[in-house]
Write a structure and sequence with these properties.
By secondary structure, the protein is of the alpha/beta class. It has 20 helices and 13 strands. This is DALD3 protein.
């Protein structure tokens, strides 16, 4: 029957009701999961059926639900809240946990590709915290796309000045090979520019305005926008002074597109990039850079009027407000400040243990987690505020990256403890997953972990990696905060369960079936942690 999924089950439930719109919702709150797993709300039923009365044959159809990827139904009944469904939970545990563990399969988009462009790396000044937001977002989005089988080109390449701080933040970004950028491509762009009806030479001489030496010509962007009927661009875009640097930026983008087209001569499926383009080019920019990137977008459209340039998308990050700085702070200073705060918080919690050399890597990883969650757990459109004197968001509470890493480390400690006990002969080795008795998993926290996290995780990754077509203009919205929020909520529910349930009990044979089933469940939870953290370039910690 294949791995069950939320989307497949909801589709099957809606088909039974015979309605084109989605009536069913998946429950996630613990208090509701005590009674039901899916609900067709009363208001929706009243609109779909006369008097809100669901025919008996429809209820019977729901009860006998089945098919590939569909959870089997235990019971379906009318309640004041609506039509409530509870699935066969032991069977769901068996189907999800009884198979051999392995990496999640990509979602069928192998051979597709995308170019992610982050102009923050082209800035003339040193990187600041506001530059880190689009960089970390692009890095995370690249990893999410790769989980779906998409090949990703990241542009521009790193220069020496930016490399160290981004290495500390675990950014997987290509480095510059040095030298001038693609001189042949720049020369070709200059030739096209000389023939463009939108370009005019810059007149120099007495009485003329003094222009910088690197200005090549002027391009009338406003005329191009009006003649092409383009929407979504800033109305203040007018004349652009084209420089060598702008052409080099376009040359690097052009080269990335050509490399991807040679490597992947396959059109992207409409399911992933709904406009049906043969490629996807996404400019990940801060709101401060948006105007300049729109200029570059239009210049590229003028010089290379191909399908790929016509379908450029802009993913815009909201502002990053820094409070309590003694002066303007650089990205490297921000990292060192958060690292010092993480060290101090760890000393308060663990004392002299933190002096051990092994903790150096732990503190570094916790710092990266703190910064990534600080930057990425909020919708990319919203403003984020960094209070540099308040370390609590980074080091304390249930919504910090440190909290997520702590719970991941608790799982590692659990399995290390179990393995050591096996080697001492206290417990027998864990039997094969297909032989375990999952009917022993009756604690409500166990179903919560499976139903809210293990079951939907592949769909969570898929939704987080979607790049939808813009509703109007050139801006797109992505669900880039999804994985961070998923990990935070998973950590909270796992922590609650782990604090309440003693997984490694007394070594009595009659207790082994339940212990083995719980270890298999938590092993699958550990795999979800590891797979989700890998999209953030965060290695799992074996100790805290």
């Amino acid at each position: 029957e294949g791995r069950p999924g939320v989307a497949a089950t909801l589709r099957a439930l809606n088909e039974v009701l015979g309605r084109p719109t989605s009536l069913w919702v998946k429950e996630s709150a613990a208090r509701n999961l005590r009674h039901r797993d899916f609900l067709a709300p009363r208001a929706a039923l009243s609109a779909a059926f006369p008097g809100g009365q669901v025919p008996a044959e429809v209820v019977a159809g729901v009860t006998s639900l089945g098919g590939p990827g569909v959870l089997a139904v235990q019971a379906c009944q009318e309640t004041p809240a609506g039509l409530a469904v509870q699935v066969r939970r032991p069977e769901a545990f068996q189907r999800l946990l009884g198979a051999l563990p392995g990496p999640l399969p990509p979602a069928g988009t192998q051979g597709t590709w995308a170019v992610l462009h982050c102009p923050a790396l082209r800035g003339p000044t040193a990187l600041r915290p506001r530059h880190l937001r689009p960089l970390l977002l692009a890095d995370h989005l690249a990893q999410l796309l790769r989980t779906q089988g998409v090949s990703v080109c990241l542009v521009p390449s790193l220069d020496e000045a930016s490399r160290e701080v981004l290495r500390q933040l675990h950014l997987d970004w290509p480095s510059s090979s040095g030298g001038s950028v693609l001189p042949d491509t720049v020369s070709a762009l200059k030739r096209v520019l000389a023939q463009s009806p939108y370009a005019t030479a810059c007149e120099k001489g007495p009485g003329r305005a003094t222009l910088p030496e690197d200005i090549i010509c002027k391009v009338r962007l406003k005329n191009f926008v009006e003649q092409q009927g383009l929407v979504g661009y800033d109305p203040n875009l007018d004349v652009l002074l084209v420089t060598e640097g702008k052409l080099q930026a376009l040359a690097e983008l052009q080269q990335a597109v050509l490399q991807c087209m040679v490597s992947n001569l396959v059109a992207l499926p409409a399911s992933h990039f709904p406009d049906g383009s043969c490629c996807s080019i996404v400019h990940v920019v801060s709101c401060e850079e948006e105007f300049q990137q729109q200029q570059l977008d239009l210049l590229w459209r003028i010089l290379d009027p191909g399908a790929h340039t016509a379908l450029q998308k802009h993913l815009v990050c909201g502002p990053v407000k820094v409070t309590n700085p003694s002066s303007a702070i650089g990205a490297d200073q921000y990292f060192q400040l958060r690292k010092q705060q993480m060290y101090e918080a760890s000393v308060m919690k663990y004392g002299e243990l933190v002096q051990d050399e092994a903790w150096t890597e732990v503190i570094d990883t916790l710092t990266v987690a703190a910064i990534r969650f600080e930057m990425l757990s909020t919708s990319h459109r919203s403003q984020i505020t960094l209070d540099l004197e308040d370390s609590s968001i980074s080091t304390k509470g249930t919504k910090s990256g440190a909290f997520v890493m702590y719970n991941c480390a608790r799982l590692a400690t659990l399995f290390d403890t179990y393995q050591q006990a096996v080697e001492r002969g206290t417990y027998p080795p864990l039997p094969p997953a297909s032989e375990l008795k999952y009917s022993c998993l009756r604690e409500e926290g166990e179903w919560l972990l499976l139903f809210n996290y293990l079951l939907p995780f592949p769909e969570v990754l898929q939704q987080a990696a979607e790049l939808p077509a813009p509703t109007q203009g050139i801006r797109i919205t992505a669900n880039t905060e999804t994985v961070c929020k998923f990990l935070i909520q998973l950590s909270m529910d796992f922590s609650s369960y782990y604090n309440r349930v003693h997984v490694l009990g007394e070594p009595f044979p009659h207790l082994f079936d339940q212990m083995f089933a719980r270890l298999r469940l938590l092993g699958a939870v550990r795999d979800v942690f590891h797979n989700a953290l890998s999209t953030l370039h965060l290695p799992p910690l074996s100790q805290i």
